Amino acid sequence: MKKRTIIVSFVVLLTLAGFIAFKTMNKEATALNDSFTKEFIAEEWVEDEFHLFESKTGQYRMLFPDQFQLISDPPEFYGKQGDSYEHWVGQISNDNSKGIAYSFKVTFKDEKVDLTENQLYSMLNNHAYNDQYETINSSNKTIYHGSSSLFFEGPKATIHNPNFNQANIFFGLISDEHSNKTVEIYYSLDCIEIERGCEINTQGEYEFALKLMKSVEFLDKQ
Question: What's this model's pTM, rounded to 2 decimal places?
């Protein structure tokens, strides 16, 4: 498949997210200090700098980094439909960010039929450079993951090769091996103050995104 242009609506959402984070958050804002975020914390400090996040659907858990917080408003940042769908956005922006706004978007789905192939195609179509991705298999889940470089060229955003351009989008689809449950994670780094350098530790950020993806645990809802 050939290179495609990323969906602009997603880019606008992340840009808006970065702007709100930069204006409303500071280095003192952590997961446990924010009342909305704390509603989702099932266990504190399960790892250094990480808490255990539990979905309001009761269908999955994952690590949640302490320096981030959930955004409750507007509705684009958090939504839930019964126990089969949930999406949310976590953000951070502080004085030590080197001009970067950090944002990750998580979407959970429990479909009546297996739509993993369709979701993978959509993820690659919208976020991957030349459909590049890798796979991690285990007895419980499969993780499809990759990275890419997003640049604005005029009014459009285009995807470039992360091997030659600094990656700023890290994406993953986690599929449960025993059900039709999936979790999509998109981790974005937006340069909001270019005069501060906007340096990205690509390998470190990729490892951070993979840590979140690997931590996803699907639950058996009774």
Answer: 0.84
